[in-house]
Amino acid sequence: MQNIPIYALQAIQKTLERHIRLTDQEFEFLTQHLTWRKLRKRQFLLQAGEVCRYNFYVVKGCLRMYEIDETGRERVLHFATENWWTGDLYSFLTQMPTSFHIECMEDAELLQIEQQCMENLYTQIPKLERFFRILVQNSLIATHRRLISIMSRSATERYYEFIEKYPDLEQRVANHHIASYLGIAPESLSRLRKEYMNKK
Amino acid sequence: MQNIPIYALQAIQKTLERHIRLTDQEFEFLTQHLTWRKLRKRQFLLQAGEVCRYNFYVVKGCLRMYEIDETGRERVLHFATENWWTGDLYSFLTQMPTSFHIECMEDAELLQIEQQCMENLYTQIPKLERFFRILVQNSLIATHRRLISIMSRSATERYYEFIEKYPDLEQRVANHHIASYLGIAPESLSRLRKEYMNKK
DNA sequence: CGAAAATTTGACATGACTCAACTGGAGTGG
DNA sequence: CCACTCCAGTTGAGTCATGTCAAATTTTCG
Residues 6 or more apart from B10 whose CB is under 8 A from it? Predict the structure, then answer.
C-alpha cells in the first residue's frame, strides 16, 4: 500500500482540530486506519448497488454525489472539494447497497476510513465519536437550509445564493451539474446565467 | 418540579433501546437530567430569537417546527409526534438565537434535556453520544430523501408520498401546515386532495 | 350563536420545463 | 496540425404545473 503523503495528514489533522484535540498518540493511531487513494477524472468512488464501506476525506479534487431518479435523471446531492467529507452515510451504517454514485469531476486524492474501523476508533478515541457527530450535525443543518431554500426561493434566487456561497464551484463544476444540484433544468440555468451577466 | 410519570419514562426507555442498551443505573442517572413538561395547544416550545437550550422528546401530542421566510411565509421543517425528538440543533449547539418556532398543534407532554446536561451525559455515558449520533444521522438521511423528493417529484407525487408515509399526520395536522411542509400552496393541496378523493 | 380561521373553488398569470435546433469548444485520430 | 466528432451550452417557441388573488363556503372555538 502506498504511503500517505505528509500534506494529506496535515490537512486532515487541521480539519479534526476544528472540533477536537487529539494527542499525538491518538492521531498516530488514527492514521494507521487511513488509506490513501488517488483517482482520475471520471472515475467512480462509489456506484449504486455497492455497499459504501468507507467514509472519504477529500485532500484534493472535486467530486459529486448523485442519485438517478425514476425518470433516469441525475440529482446531485452534494459536491465535495478539499477538506470535505463524502460517502453514503445510510449505506455506510446499514451496510445496505447505496443508491448513489460518487464521481470524480477532477483527478482526486482522498483518505478513506473503513466502517469497521470507525466502530473501533470510536471506542478507542471517544473524541472521534464527537467529531463525527458534529460533522453529521453540521451536514444536517446545511441540508435543512437547502431544503428551506428550495421550498421558498425561485430558481433565480437559488442560483444567486449558490454563486455567493460557492464561487469556486461555479468555476470548477460543469453547468449541468450545478443545475442538477439546484434542482433546475440546465437550459434554465443557462438563461439565469445570461441574465446575471447582463446585470453586471 | 413535577414528577415524571412512569409511562413517560417507559416511552423514552423504549426509544433508547432501539439503539443502545443502558444499565438501570445509567438510565436512572439519565432520568435525573430530564424535565417533564406539559403544554397546551397553540403554545410555543421555542420562538425565533430565543436560544434553544433543550432537546425535546415528545411523549404525547403533535408539534411543528417552522421558519418564517423573507416574504413572511411559514415553512414547516418537520412535525414531531409521539416518540420523536425535536429542537433546533443549530441553536442548541452554537447557543446562537434560533430562527425557528416550535408550536404545539395539540396539547403535548414532553421530556426535555438541557444542552449543558447533554455534555455531561455524553461524558458519563458514552453510549448516549452514540445514540444521539445515530439520531442525527437518521435525521440527515431523512432530510436527504426529502430534498431529492422535492427536487425530482411533482406536487402530486409528493402529496401521495406523504399520505403513504404519514397517514396519521394527514388526519391530525391542518391542511395548510401539510402544504407548507410539502412546499406547495394550500390551494394546490386542496385540489390534490379533491382529485385523490375522486380516484378512490 | 357568531366571529375568525380554514378550506374550497374559480379565473387567471407565470416561472420553469420540454423539445428541438444551433453554436462552440475540447478531445481524438489520421 | 487539421478535420471530425461529440458533448456542453445557448437560444427560441410552446406548454403546463403550480402559484396568486379573490370570493364563497365550511369549520372551529370562544
Answer: none
Chain A residues 5-64 with a CB less than 8 Å from chain B: none
What is the rounded average pLDDT for all residues in chain B? 94
Which residues in chain B are contacts of A89 at CB distance < 8 A? 137, 140-141
Residue B67 is given by DSSP the state: E
Alpha-carbon gap: B2 to the closest alpha carbon of chain A (Å): 32
Q: State pTM to two decimals.
A: 0.91
User: What would the pLDDT profile of A39-60 be if each residue is shown by its tens digit?
Assistant: 999 999 999 999 999 999 999 9
Measure Cα distances from A152 to A158, B131, B135, B188 in Å: 9, 32, 27, 15
Three-class SS of residue B100?
Answer: strand
The amino acid present at B112, given as its one-letter code, is Q
CA dihedral B181, B182, B185, B191 (to 10 degrees): -120
Footprint of strand C on the protein (CB under 7 A): A 154-156, 183-185, 187-188; B 174-176, 186-187, 189-191, 193-194
SS3 A33: coil
Alpha-carbon span A8 to A110, nearest angstrom: 8
Cell numbers representing residue B122 in the block: 455524553
